[in-house]
Amino acid sequence: MRLGRDLERVGLDGGAGVDGGPETDDVRRHRDQAVVFISGSVIERDADSHGLRLCCRIQTSANKNQERSGIPEWSASVTAFVWHGVCIEFGHPMFTDYATDGFFDEMFSAKGGQAFPHYAKIRDQIGSMSDEQLREKQRHLDASFLEQGVTFTVYGDGDHGTERIFPFDPLPRVIPADEWQVIEDGLTQRIIALNLFLNDIYHEGKIIKDGIVPEEVVKTAAHYRPEMVGVDVPQNIYMHICGSDLIRDDEGNYLVLEDNGRCPSGASYVLENREAMKRAFPKLYQSLGVRPVGDYPALLRKTLEFLSPRQAGMPVCVLLTPGLYNSAYFEHSFLAKQMGIEIVEGRDLVAVDGYVYMRTTRGLVQVDVIYRRIDDDFLDPTVFRKDSLLGVPGIMEAYLKGNVVLANALGTGVADDKVTYAYVPDMIKYYLDQDPILNNVPTFLGWRKKDRNHMLENLENLVVKAANESGGYGMLMGPSSTKAERAEFAEKIRENPRNYVAQPVVSLSRHPTICPEGIEGRHVDLRPFVLCGEDIEIIPGGLTRVALNKGSLVVNSSQGGGSKDTWVL
Amino acid sequence: MLSRVADSLYWLGRYVERAENLARIVEVTRREDLESFRHDPSDSLWKPVLFATCVQEEDKELETPDDPAHFITLDRKNPASIANCIAGARENARVVRDQISEEMWLELNSIHLFLRSDAAERSFHDDPDGLFRRIIRFSIIFQGLTQSTILQDEGWHFSRLGKFIERADKTSRILDTLTFRTGEPSAMALLAVLRSCSGFTAFRSEYRDDNSFRNVASFLFFSVNFPRSIRFCLRRINEALLEISGTSDGFFTNEAERLTGRTLAQINFTDVDQLFKAGLHQSVDELQQNLNDIGQCIFENYVLLPSELRDVVRTEGLQHSLLQQHRQKQQ
Predict the structure, then answer these.
(1) Any residues with CB less than 8 A from the CB of A372 and at least 6 apart, and which?
(2) Is the backbone peptide bond immediately before A65 cis, with ω within 30 degrees of 0?
(3) Does the N-terminal or the C-terminal CB of chain A have fewer CB atoms within 10 Å?
């Protein structure tokens, strides 16, 4: 709390002026009813709470003569502290009207509206800015994202789509160290189990034989790849990069909403958001002791090199992108540049006699590891979709021969299927004999008769999802749906029960966010990035996505979502 | 270096140079236009310019747009407009963002965002000089950054190739505008040509104030030290090609090098008298054809699949569409 420091600066006996501090009159004009006047003397220093214990006479304009000793505390309605007639600290005009509305809020406790201790500095600094200052910062940040080309492409208007910046909210999300430790342990446990599961189902299938996961669930998953049965992948790792989406329920427990085990995107925004925040709020950033995220590219490269079939010399790793017009092209080129590897398109690669080469001005160069950012279906037009122009004819042959490695491996999609998801806690038990550290959101499966009946009877209270869709598409938000939409989904569920799952509405935690009307609570989730190579590495933080539309629970960038920087302490 | 990356760097260099030259040509013509209303209907003034900026097929009569300057500068419907050249340069820069410096990207992206904004339209009407100066200055800064902020490796040579092929082509087109008129070009027209190549001062120091048609042609074709002369550009193209393949001067290892060497030798061993005897317009035509062929050979040699692979890999469709795209861009 800055109050203590400022008192020291004034001279603890009080009375002297504060350099450059506004006079009491200014404060009054600013917001008269919420000024706290303090006078008195310091009784003791209190190192671990707020610095100084004071004997105070606290006056507010509402209650002139209340006198008590103790630590003067900020509360949502205080806008300034005045020490012997001099304003020593402006309050947090930005947060005065903030309401948690009964949701779990990342920053303010539901009781009493106090900011959590790990948010105190943010409340002090950002809260004391004026609306205009804060918006100026935001405009500045937006302009710099646009200038640097930190954009994604939106399709639909114009033939090549339009480049937009991913809306960025400058209020950072803070995660204290102890909470992060739980997340880290939980995700580590989860990726180990998922990789064991993938290795198992593409080999002996013990988990199926032991009756834990029904065979039908595995074999009917849209991204199950029969081509992979019996194929050994390097180090038995299938999912090298995983981005699991975490949400928090009304008690603040972290839950896994889904695992993205194919081509999770967003890591570049984590890095760019961090750079932007360091420029915009350097002092605040420094004072909190935020753990850095900048070594993600180096760790990713290490993970990729670890997989190379040729360990002698420098393995040739490339990033395979669908191309310039892909919505995540910025991310692809950003990561390639940061890792110092080539970014290639399908047409840059040729497969000859079971090896993959890239075409360079000096002829062909053999490729060892492909960090591919295109889906299985588009990889090889001679094996999968014939109409794919993005892939490389013959790449599958080279892959199955083990001459080139794909990250993630082919067929990981079976593990991020929304039905398989429901079994992850069982997998953790089965393979690791542990209880899951991070829980799932309770999930009803359409293909289980009992669950299906429950789904059909309670559609208005549930979120229904298609098992193989992502990006927030193919969803029914029960409570906000119309009768016709519900009827349509009931029909779909009956027709193809395997393809649908339902979850109770978990009302995601909220975080203060800059909105047109001022700072308001908006729902957020968190996507940390897990790397699985020689070691399992999780960069502290991840992408906090925020649903910018009032009341919305959909955080996807294609549907009105934005992002925040995530500060792990 | 990836073939596609080399190709993008080449076009990045070429589009930026093209945008700069277009800005030079339009600015000079626009100024001349301001003074010409008495003796020269502006239509005949802009026609050669429109031709030089490649929006008109030789055999097709294209009607002059209402506002030719705007058409060449900001019109998004004109594929060869400055705004679209910059967009093309930026597109290629996006492809090779990991190869160029942050400073280069920022310059290019900010001029691109500017040219697409209303501010550019306002500037075109209120302060056109300022607009063209800004475009030219952008190109100069960008080329300076290319010179001083990235590795001078293979990729850099490719971007230089693009730049000098484009520059040689545009200088020859500017010179060619003089042959569209009947009779000896006016002193004002000669001055305009020199100005649009930023060559006025350099010309004065080589020829004093003897600005005859013959001297201007000789200067733009043969000057050894003027960085926009055709000879100067061809020497740089030759150097860059030899650097890329590691070949000694006087030898060639591919068709692009052979053609460049031959074209350069032709210029080295010709003088202005022979140039006029052969006909300036014909010589310019021949040069442009050679430049086109050189571009094509670079593309075939470095960007298309190696010939021994073309049979192994079934990529006829790919080769065809690559070639097609390349031809369109060269126009």
Answers:
(1) A263, A319, A320, A379, A406, A407, A408
(2) no
(3) C
The residue whose two tokens read 């027709």 is A495
Question: DSSP code of A480?
Answer: G
Is A201:A236 a contact under the CB 8 Å cutoff? no
Helix (H, G, I), strand (E, B) or coil at A176: coil
Beta strands at A317-320 and A369-372: parallel, antiparallel or unpaired: parallel
Q: How far are the Cα atoms of A410, A412, A435 from residue A226, in angstroms, in the given order?
A: 10, 12, 31
Look at residues A248, A247, A274, A296 and name the one whose alpha carbon lies nearest to residue A527.
Answer: A247
Partner residue opposite B306 with nearest CB, options A342, A345, A363: A363
Give the residue numbers spanning the domain of B71: 1-149
Verify whether the Cβ–Cβ distance B110 to A147 is below 8 Å: yes
Say which residues have a Cβ less than 8 Å from residue B295's Cβ, sequence separation at least 6: B165, B330
Cβ-contact A316, A355 below 8 angstroms: no
Same domain, residue pair B96 and B5: yes
CATH 3.20.20.30 fits A442-504, yes or no: no
Amino acid at A451: D
pLDDT above 90 covers a percentage of chain B that reads 47
Q: Are residues B89 and B73 in the same domain?
A: yes
Q: Considering only A169-183, A204-218, A345-359, B182-196, which range has the smallest mean pLDDT?
A: B182-196
Q: Are residues B116 and B216 in the same domain?
A: no
**Interface ipTM > 0.95:** no
Per-residue pLDDT tens over the stretch A119-174: 888 887 887 777 788 888 888 888 888 777 777 666 554 444 566 777 888 889 99
Q: Does the CB of A343 have a partner CB in chain B at under 8 Å? A: yes
Contact A186, A438 (CB under 8 A): yes
Pairwise CB contact (< 8 Å): A361 & B94: no
**Is any Cβ of chain A less than 8 angstroms from the Cβ of B266?**
no
Residue type, A210: D
Six token digits for residue A286: 């420094």
Chain A residues with CB under 8 Å of B247 CB are none
Percent of chain A residues topping a pLDDT of 70: 79
Dist CA B19 CA B192 (whole Å)? 18
For residue A476, what is the enclosing H or E element?
Answer: strand A475-477
